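[Automated response] Your request has been received and processed.

Submitted sequence:
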Amino acid sequence: MIAIYNRVSSPAHAENYSIKEQKEEGLAFAVSQNEKYELFIDIWSGKDVSRKNWRKMILGIEKKKYSAVWCAKLDRLSRDALEGLKFIQALKLSSTKLFVKDH
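Generated structure:
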């Protein structure tokens, strides 16, 4: 199963890189991989580590629920360096792959 993570900082930012586009791209990736998926959407600052769906996805990664995580851009995951490192550690410990569209 692939975790698809979509985020914008605020409803106003949805105009620049919309949740709809991120969602469509993530779903297309999951289909191309012939994988089931779970979609996580946050409209929240990437600096805030208390994002509801971010935390939910991290718990799933720690439980080895996902074979991979997909996001459109690295900055969609986190804007906090420490939180980003914790995310990478969780991926490593659970052998979860990371796919980034605009890498």
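Summary generated for your ticket: The mean pLDDT is 91. The first strand starts at residue 2 and ends at 8.
If you did not submit this request, please reply to this message.
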